[in-house]
Amino acid sequence: TESLQVGELAKKLNKDTSEIIKKLMGLGIMATINQELDKEAIELIAADYDVEVEEEIIIDETEFENYEVVDDEKDLQVRPPVVTIMGHVDHGKTTLLDAIRNTKVTAGEAGGITQHIGAYQITNNGKQITFLDTPGHAAFTTMRARGAQVTDITILVVAADDGVMPQTVEAINHAKAAEVPIIVAVNKMDKEAANPDRVMQELTEHGLVSEAWGGDTIFVNVSAIKGDGIDDLLEMINLVSEVEELKANPNRTAAGTVIEAQLDKGRGSVATLLVQSGTLNVGDPIVVGHTFGRVRAMVNDLGRRVKSVGPSTPVEITGLNDVPQAGDQFMVFADEKKARQIGESRFKKQQDAQRKESSKLNLDDLFNQI
Ligand code: GTP
Ligand code: MG
């Protein structure tokens, strides 16, 4: 059974702590504000207020919801940057991601077969970089809508023969709202009609002024199809991530965000997680959004089984009771019982919310018909 402190119980019942303490005294329990109460005492007090005790009010979920990574400066270590690629339709986002992966991922990883897990990691000059493979806009909109911030750096792809287009502007706005630094990749430089100066000119109007023109935005000319300029681009990513001083504490229980998830016929719920702090291990009890379980197996972006992974690493896990959603936060708990309780409570809440939502919709439908 769970316990609650006197002060917490008072808060849940919306009463003064002193009132609760008095009632406890009446029951022969001498208590202070921080005293842990057992289930029986909680039920007695609650009954006195005509409040029925459900598991839910006993479970303290604040641990998950107010979860914030607070680490001592001395525990922080440099971590790889997490990069997303954004830009207008057809400007070459996918081709660029593939070009980067093909030039870097397999080097020194003989035998490793890159598999699609929604993210991958490369090593450039001894430094790792994590790329999110999800469409940049989705990464920003769905994830940010759910309170998750996963991106450290955005690569804005602009085709040199097409220039700034509506979704280019949208991408700039997303990155600015999230305060994520932008590196501009002027793509399709191999094309006859390529006009990088025009791209620079047009982006100036959106506040992105090239260093060459006295601004502070890095521009790199590339041809994703030919593989030109890829090394320069990676070099610039390393530079920006050094400036950003990206750090995390690897020596704590893991927390992070779901990149994508689906139901697999053979393996059940399969989720790609981005570990943002701490180290995730096989066997860890975990709550992922409103799902929970124990990490049964982990597979990295090369399709290899791994036992533990640190900050900024994408990894595919199995072992969850249900399929979470992209943008859901995850958190490891010290014991499985707690993970289960919190997972179940979150699941119930989510279902209640859905039920409310659908009954509201029905009412709306009704009114619309009248
Ligand atoms: P969406 O996912 O539809 O938004 O497009 P995308 O931005 O991912 O573009 P994608 O990589 O699919 O490329 C679109 C087209 O441009 C394809 O036909 C690519 O072959 C072509 N392309 C991409 N990069 C280059 C390049 O550097 N040079 C040339 N000539 N063509 C390119
Ligand atoms: Mg694409």
From TrEMBL:
Q: Where is this region: G-domain?
A: 81-229
List locations, semicolon-separated.
Answer: Cytoplasm
Q: Domain of life of the organism in this record?
A: Bacteria
Q: Where does GTP bind?
A: 87-94, 133-137, 187-190
Q: Where does the Tr-type G domain lie?
A: 78-247
Give the record's family classification: Belongs to the TRAFAC class translation factor GTPase superfamily. Classic translation factor GTPase family. IF-2 subfamily.
Role according to the record: One of the essential components for the initiation of protein synthesis. Protects formylmethionyl-tRNA from spontaneous hydrolysis and promotes its binding to the 30S ribosomal subunits. Also involved in the hydrolysis of GTP during the formation of the 70S ribosomal complex.
**Which protein, by its recorded name, is this?**
Translation initiation factor IF-2
The organism encoding this protein is Fictibacillus phosphorivorans
Give the fragment's position in the full-length protein. 183 to 552 of 759
